[in-house]
ATP-dependent Clp protease ATP-binding subunit ClpC
Amino acid sequence: MLLIALAANPASDAARMLRNAGVSANEIQEAVIASAPRPCSAARPGSGTPTLDWYGRDLTEVAREGRLDPVVGREDEIEQSLRRAAEAA
């Protein structure tokens, strides 16, 4: 939103630079709207979590199908995530 505001102000250096690059505030706004998150799957019938089903994805199912990318070299981040999850529980 900040970039849109900067681009919309014709007196700003940012707007001048964007104009020189051929980019308008409207184009930025359209790109932001187009990149907004969209629901990725439909809720499963009889599910107890239809909203989660609609907006999320079942990582357990994805892993079972072998479609989950391996986590390599992220041991510190994984350990930190596990610690935070344990603290929240």
About this structure: The mean pLDDT is 82.
